[in-house]
Specification:
Outer Surface Protein A, domain 3; 3-stranded antiparallel β-sheet; 4-stranded antiparallel β-sheet; 2 helices; alpha+beta; about 180 residues; single chain
Length: about 180
Amino acid sequence: MSRVGKYPVAVPQGVTVTVNDNVVVAKGKLGELRYEAAEEVVTSLEENQIWVKPRGETKTARMQWGTTRARINNMIIGVTAGFTRKLEMVGVGYKAAVQGSVLKLSLGYSHDIEYPIPADLKIVAPTPTSIEISGMDKQRVGQVASEIRGFRPPEPYKGKGVKYTGEWILRKEGKKK
């Protein structure tokens, strides 16, 4: 069992954190994030460190202990450096372009897919076959990347589709003569 919850979260310089009734608010150079911790844990701020402790020894309290610590750590990283997820498109004619506040995807369907870019995220297409999603909330960045990947997930025979950069696709052998 992981014991990630017992370690404190260090607050770097340039980040202000307030803890009030299990509501943690972090402000940094990229913006402000807020997280409301579960009732099973107690969060406290002591000497530029955030401590998370379970209220009891129940299974739920121990699960929330590590989860809360990880979420707070991701908030601190998010307001200082942010998160980026990169996608690649493999396939003839597959391309992406950002037009204003819309991501336009050509993925081999009879129509282009227009995905509205959320206000809290930044999406760029450095090349026609790659997409970069960046923002300060790790969950939002991952969710949007997953939604875009879901329009045409990679298939196992030719490897065509939208995949994460560095993702390894298990390839299958085709029909034999």
